[in-house]
Design goal:
The protein is of the alpha+beta class. Helices cover 31% and strands 22% of the residues. It has one domain. The chain is globular, with a radius of gyration of 18 Å. The N and C termini lie far apart (46 Å).
């Protein structure tokens, strides 16, 4: 259940990015690239390696799904990009991640380029009555711009996105539980370019 929920949340950020005006320039950003890069949540931050991330969860590297995700990363169909989930409650460092239900991470060329964190909701976690409450908490805790700089993305008001130079910080309030995602833009395009070059080579070399 948790995995399906966070997988759905992960789809939202690319959708919101695509919904932005095609001609939008970085000058429209309300926060700098340095803000997104420096944002650290319980030791997790953009740019860290898979080994650095897994060191936060002793034993996670032995998880079959994690091991599979990290195998043959540069080969097709991954082309340098891979993704996996971590449930902090399963590891000895669980106290460090108290209040976090699930974490999803995406690496490209062994560099963390996107992460999404789903917090525990009620009754064991806090109940956020609305998205404004949650964004106010994030802004206060991580010194991010205030609510007015997080434009509405969907009519149901379950998510908003803060645009930084080359990055997006997404905040969501799903079933009154908080969620935050941080992603570097255009990474998927790099992976797609590799795949296209690979397929072009295959077509060129193929002999009917």
């Amino acid at each position: 259940m948790c995995r399906s929920m966070i997988a759905a949340l992960m789809c939202l950020l690319p959708m919101t990015a695509a919904a932005q005006t095609a001609g939008q320039q970085t000058s429209d950003s309300v926060c700098s690239a340095a803000t997104a890069r420096s944002l650290t949540i319980r030791g997790i931050h953009l740019g860290m390696s898979a080994a650095e991330l897994l060191a936060l969860f002793p034993g996670a590297s032995e998880n079959p799904e994690v091991k599979a995700a990290l195998e043959n990363v540069q080969a097709p169909p991954k082309f340098g990009m891979t993704q996996f989930y971590v449930g902090p409650g399963a590891y000895s460092t669980r106290e460090r991640f108290a209040g976090i239900d699930m974490i999803s991470v995406t690496f490209f060329d062994d560099r963390l380029t996107s992460y999404f964190i789903q917090y525990i909701g009620p009754p064991n976690g806090p109940m956020w009555n609305n998205l404004d409450e949650w964004i106010a908490k994030l802004s206060e805790t991580f010194h991010l711009p205030g609510l007015r700089d997080w434009p509405r993305q969907f009519p149901d008001e379950t998510s908003r996105v803060l645009t930084c130079d080359g990055f997006k910080i997404w905040a969501g309030n799903q079933n009154q539980r908080g969620t935050i995602g941080v992603t570097e833009e255009n990474v998927d395009r790099k992976r797609q370019a590799r795949e296209q070059a690979y397929q072009e080579k295959k077509r060129r070399e193929f002999k009917p």
